[in-house]
Amino acid sequence: MADRKVNIDVVFRNGLKDYEAMPPHDIWGEIQPSIKTRFNLPIFVKVAASLAVIFTLAFFSYRLGINSAIRVAENRSYFPSERASLQQTLVQNPVILAENRTAEIKGITYNGSPLEAVVLEVTDNHRVATNEHIDEIFIDNAVKLFGPAKLQDESDPKSQYYTIEEYNSIDFSAQNDNPRDRVEQKWTIAALASPTYYTGTVNNGSQVVLSADEQPSISYAGGVAFSYRINERVSIQSGLYYSNIGQRINGISSYAGFGPINASKGDTPFEVATNSGTIQTDNADIFLADASGTRVSSDYSIDNFDPVKSSLSQIGTSLEQSFRYIEVPLSLRYKVVDGTLGVNLFGGLSSNLLVGNNVYSNNDGVIHYIGKTDGLRGFVISSTFGMGMEYNISKSISLNLEPMLRYYLTPINATSTGTNPFSFGLFSGIAYKF
Amino acid sequence: MYGVCLQYTGNGEEASDVLQEGFIKVFENLPNYKFEGSFEGWVRKIMVNTALEKYRERHNLYRVDDIGTLNEIEADIEVGEYTGMEAEDLLDMIKALPPQYKMVFNLYAIEGYTHKEISGMLGITQSTSKSNLSRARTILQRRVEACNRIKKKVING
Q1: Coil, helix or strand at residue A129
Q2: Domain count, chain A
Q3: Would the CB atoms of B116 and A291 count as touching at under 8 Å?
Q4: Are the CB atoms for A253 and A353 separated by under 8 Å?
Q5: pTM, whole model, 2 decimals?
Q6: Chain B, 30-59: which have a CB under 8 Å from a chain A CB?
Q7: % of chain B surpassing 90 pLDDT
Q8: The domain that contains A333 carries what CATH number?
Q9: What is the ipTM of this complex?
Q10: Where are the alpha helices (DSSP H) in A67-128?
Q11: Which A residues in the span 119-178 are in contact with B, Cβ-Cβ below 8 Å?
Q12: What pLDDT sits at residue B157?
């Protein structure tokens, strides 16, 4: 048979692809005590994740609950222990009291016929009853509605109730915005946190080449928001947020132990060109080597100095730029859907004050400080736009989920590169109305 | 993953060290795992990086001087009727390579890094990386051919 060629690389790559070997058993025992307790997730992540879970559970329990009609159809009295849960259920679900049936709630017996055999919808939207007033619904064969139309004379209890005929003729869609229920709550304070995804646009075309090795990183934002309701639909919002955005620059290796060599030459700093500005090292012990040969500039380079031969130890394979801002937003919020699950749109501007500017070397998440990014503006303006969803767990408290897009109107750096970042965040939190 | 560690080290003891340190890094850095690519790939990368660190720590002990540079040779070789190799045999051949050849061959042929990337990782020039790869291939080719001849003899009687 004729000889044939094989590719030695492929022989080894394929031959070892699925190769498994059992390590000595004692290895696993030694790993356990060596692991440090470093599983502390950032607090923002914990808060955001907890709120997202709460929101999801609350939303689904609401959706499932609204679809299950409860029939009070048994001709019997309810024990005290059953009443509490029945009352709770009555508030949240439509109740059908069947004809020729009776039910006793809070000590009062209700008949299913003839006049009380109506379908009584006890829902939040109609605001017919609350938990405390469930036993007042059928007084004198009438339905109580907490609306202003029947409250002209509070000294006459009869005037507070609608008759069955009046009740059936009410257009509830027009009654939904009952001002009596909400007139007092003008202010809202909310605590929100979010993981954010940051990336940027570069204005100067010649710098785009740098973008190839620049990778957006997931960062975090959080803070407190205040809003004031101007009218039923519109509110104005401000607050105080802390945000951390940044990016990773791949292909730049960092070595420690350069201090003694550097000092003898007069502490030469390294400069690294990035779209966000030039990184200047201020840690004299660090040597930077650039795989592409285009970013790092210094008196030293990988061509005239070998960090490995000089026994420097490698501490990173990429750089992390971190910019921290304090934000004061001013935005308008428009309520699109009102109800237990509310939806609103918001947009506005934010003033951002730079409070942190650090660059770190990174090796699989282990970071070391090496310097700062030059040319960043201390103050920038950003625009925000988003959609807010709020689930009202009571009249005063709601859980919020707000996808938000932010675009920096002024470049974050004062150099000719001109980077306008934008970020996307999914804010979640809790709000209190008063 | 122990197999990967064996590939990058000369013996079981070093491989155990790399595996142990590698897994500690995996557990410590789990919060930093970004869910980009497979988890197995991420763990493998950490193992390879750990092996590289170990190599760099000890590089002075078994540094291979560049005996001139060698042009990169073709990876395709004539080995007669190639009968296939057991993974154990292939692993033994890699383990027996000089450390720097072993590193360059693993990083280039198995992991798929470029000479430019390897030069940054090992602190060597690109031409040295190419030269090391050529020497590694030459050695491995000879061993594969020899192993193949023995196999054919056994099969043909």
Answers
A1: coil
A2: 2
A3: yes
A4: no
A5: 0.46
A6: 30-32, 34, 45-46, 49, 53, 56-57, 59
A7: 0
A8: 2.40.160.20
A9: 0.77
A10: 80-92
A11: none
A12: 60
